[in-house]
Amino acid sequence: MEKVYEKIYNKGLALKGIKKGLFFWALRLVDDFEYDKPYTGIKALKLKIADKLIFSKWREALGGNVKES
């Protein structure tokens, strides 16, 4: 998994502008993520946005069989 993460992270470093900002915003957002924890309010909204814009693309790149939160 570390190699997969490293490859994704390096692709993020190659991005420019708003895409790069969104990429690293999403990574910071999940620094304290806990699986099966019910998130509410603004945190839930941010996670939903990050999932739509960033994480869904990661799952797709990994074959679509990665379980979402």
Q: Can you describe this structure?
A:
The chain is mainly alpha-helical and 69 residues long. The mean pLDDT is 89. Helices cover 68% and strands 0% of the residues. The chain has one domain (2-61).
Short description:
This protein has 69 residues and is mostly helical.
Structural class: mainly alpha
- The N- to C-terminal Cα distance equals 17 Å
Number of individual domains: 1
Count the E strands.
0
**What coarse outline follows from CA principal-axis ratios?**
globular
Proportion of strand residues = under 5%
- Low-confidence segments: none
Tell me the series of helices and strands, N- to C-terminal: HHH
Number of helices: 3
Main sheet specs: none
Work out the radius of gyration: 12 Å
The chain-level mean pLDDT equals 89
Q: How much helicity do the residues have?
A: 55-70%
Question: Can you lay out the helices and strands and say which pair or pack?
Answer:
Elements: H1 2-14, H2 17-29, H3 41-61
Helix pairs in contact: 2-3
Properties at a glance:
69 residues; 3 helices
